[in-house]
Structure formats: structure tokens, C-alpha cells
Write a structure and sequence with these properties.
The chain has 20 helices and no strands. By secondary structure, it is mainly alpha-helical. α6 packs antiparallel against α7 and α18 runs parallel beside α20.
């Protein structure tokens, strides 16, 4: 993969230069970031030093399409930057537009309980974008799209992979961090860190997860952006067993519920599940038992997988209260939904929650998990 040093066309300064369409200014910028002399650049473009100097000074113009297309190719620029519209440029623009649509539709599919379909859509897009990057094309729109596609792929994989393979999902989201740092955009960096931190938590890397999510919260430029991070940070803090951090984040999240528009993650119902799980993992199971019946009335439709997550957490708390019937009812529904949505990680949670106390639920989840593993291996 291309390193940061060659992401020359993805900087803010590069965008300003490219927007001018001035070939002389573009050549000067290219030489400045690559350290080439006019002689070096001339050799790369097929011109002598004098001709390059004349172009840079505006004394000579390059108007023929063939020459401009060659310059665009040698500098790894989309042809339209130099005023050329041809098959290569059409393909570039179509790829970007198609890619942006693919990322949006994949996220809709994942949120609707179809993460497998999201993975199938994002794999070829990521492969195509990475191939373009390897070929030296590092335009800002390509890097931005690649970062979004990698994050989307990682999050979708985090839904469909079993626990022992969740590190793969974390690695894919983590691949977008260098691009986010390169752009130095707070909102974008916060979003990437948020997704990566959550996948780290699911993969069992608790300390790293809290670190990334705290960084995401610190970078969040608006209350809405911060509200997107806090529920995940609360969950990570609970998983880490840090009761003080967990309580602090939950209180701030509750305060923002009155200020920020609710989403599929940031809403009273999701926060209730996060609170129950966090109280258990921070050694306050008795308080979780007293709160389990106080679930708020849903204020919006949540993603199907969140319903499965909630059912398993509630079942765990009910078992702690020795309510086997209530726990069994929750887990039976959770198994059916986890199978329908192909969520092996949640089936593994069910197996742990049921344990030896609910062998029928445990065995049903184990059998369903075996079937999913066989399908994934086929």
C-alpha cells in the first residue's frame, strides 16, 4: 500500500492547487512535495528542463489532449483535473460515485440485520480501491472512500464473525486510522476511532478499546458526534471493569439524551442495556437486578442485532436473579433471531449466558453455531 509520503494529492494544500486547474502551479506543487528538480520532472514527463520551466512560468501551454492525458497518467491524477474527459476519467468518476453508494447501502443492510450482504458488497470495492492505491492513485476522494469502505467492512465482519476471529474485524477498521490521521479532520478521525474502538472491545482488547474511544470522544466536534461515541465508551469501560469511568460516561450520556437527536445506538433503550451489562461487569449485579424491569418504552426502531444483544443481556441478569423462566424466554427468542441474522458472536454470548443452568438454551445455541460455522467454511 502507498505510504503517507506519496498521498500527495490528498492534502488540503493539494486540493487548492488542483482546483485551480493551472498546470504550471500543479507541476510546481508536485516538484515541491517530491523533491524533484525540473530536469527530473522533465525526464518523467518526456520534456526537457527548459520546457518544464516554461510551463511552470506560464510561458508555454500544453493544450493537446494527448499530452495532458500523459501528464495526468505520469502524475497519477484523474484526467478531469487537467480538463480531459475520456474513458479513464469516466471510469474514475463512476468508481467514486458507485463506491459512495455501495458504502451507504452496505451500512443500511448491516443496520437492517443483513451484515453478510454488506460484507459481500464491500469486499470487491475495497479490493478495487486498494489496487488503485497500489497503482499510485492517491486522490483525496479515493483515500476518503477507501477509509469509509474499510471501516464499513470491518464493522460488518464484526457482526458475522465468531469471537475467535473478531480480531480480523478490528484490523480492517484499524486500516483506516492512517488515512484519518493524514486528513487531520476531527469529525472523520473521531468516527474512525469510534468504530475501531468498538471492534477492539468485541475482540477482547479492552484497554486499547477504551483508549481509542476516549480519543474519539475527545476529538468529537459536536454534541451529536460525542453522543455517538459515549455509549460505546461506556460499554468498553464496563467490559474493562472500570466502574468509575463507566459511571461518568453513563451520566454524561444520560444528560445528552435531552439535547441530541436519538439514533439506533444513542437512545434510552440502548443505554438501558449498556447500563445493565456494565453494572454486572463492574461488580454491581444486585443493582442491575433491581433495574432490569425498568426498561424504558422504546422511542424509536433499533437495529435488529441490538434487539438480540439486549435479550441476551436481560437473560443474563434474570439468571442472576434466579428467574430461569424469564431468562429462557429471552434466550429462545435470541437464538432464533441470531440464526436469522447470522450472528455467531451473539450465539456464543448465549452459550455463556445459559451455561449449565439452562442446558436446553445452551445446546440450541451451540447447534446453531455449528451450522453457521459449517456454512462459513463451505
Amino acid at each position: 500500500m502507498a505510504r503517507h509520503a506519496v498521498w500527495r494529492w490528498a492534502t488540503g494544500q493539494a486540493q487548492l492547487v488542483l482546483n485551480t486547474g493551472d498546470l504550471g502551479e500543479i507541476l510546481r506543487f508536485y516538484r515541491a512535495v517530491t523533491g524533484l528538480t525540473q530536469t527530473d520532472l522533465g525526464a518523467r514527463l518526456g520534456y526537457d528542463k527548459t520546457y518544464v520551466s516554461a510551463i511552470e512560468l506560464g510561458k508555454r501551454s500544453v493544450d493537446d489532449v494527448g499530452s495532458r492525458r500523459r501528464i495526468a497518467d505520469r502524475l497519477r491524477l484523474p484526467p478531469h483535473v487537467l480538463g480531459i474527459t475520456d474513458a479513464a476519467d469516466t471510469d474514475h468518476r463512476a468508481m467514486v460515485q458507485f463506491g459512495e453508494s455501495t458504502v451507504r447501502l452496505a451500512e443500511i443492510a448491516r443496520q437492517s440485520g443483513h451484515a453478510t450482504e454488506a460484507v459481500a458488497e464491500l469486499w470487491p470495492l475495497v479490493a478495487r480501491l486498494e489496487a488503485r492505491l497500489e497503482d499510485g492513485h492517491t486522490e483525496r476522494e479515493v483515500l476518503n472512500l477507501l477509509a469509509q469502505a474499510r471501516v464499513g467492512l470491518g464493522v460488518a465482519l464484526g457482526n458475522v464473525l465468531p469471537e475467535e476471529r473478531l480480531a480480523v474485524a478490528a484490523r480492517w477498521t484499524g486500516k483506516s486510522l492512517p488515512i484519518a490521521r493524514h486528513f487531520a479532520d476531527r469529525a472523520f478521525s473521531s468516527s474512525v476511532l469510534r468504530m475501531h474502538g468498538n471492534e477492539l472491545r468485541k475482540a477482547g482488547m479492552k484497554g486499547a478499546a477504551v483508549d481509542r474511544l476516549q480519543h474519539a470522544a475527545a476529538l468529537a466536534p459536536t454534541p451529536a458526534a460525542r453522543a455517538a461515541v459515549l455509549p460505546l465508551l461506556a460499554r468498553a469501560a464496563g467490559t474493562l471493569g472500570d466502574g468509575g469511568l463507566f459511571d461518568t460516561v453513563v451520566r454524561e450520556t444520560e444528560a445528552l439524551l435531552e439535547e441530541v437527536e436519538h439514533t439506533s445506538l444513542f437512545n434510552p433503550s440502548s443505554l438501558h442495556e449498556i447500563r445493565l451489562r456494565g453494572l454486572v461487569t463492574t461488580g454491581r449485579a444486585e443493582l442491575a437486578i433491581t433495574l432490569v424491569e425498568r426498561a424504558p418504552v422504546p422511542s424509536m426502531t433499533v437495529a435488529p442485532q441490538w434487539r438480540v444483544i439486549e435479550l441476551i443481556t436481560v437473560a443474563h441478569v434474570r439468571l442472576l436473579a434466579d428467574d430461569r423462566d424469564g431468562a429462557t424466554t429471552c434466550l429462545e427468542t435470541a437464538v432464533v433471531e441470531a440464526v436469522r441474522q447470522r450472528l455467531p458472536h451473539q450465539l456464543q454470548r448465549i452459550i455463556r449466558a445459559a451455561g449449565d443452568r439452562l442446558p436446553a438454551s445452551r445446546d440450541a445455541a451451540a447447534q446453531a453455531l455449528d451450522r453457521l460455522r459449517q456454512e462459513m467454511a463451505a
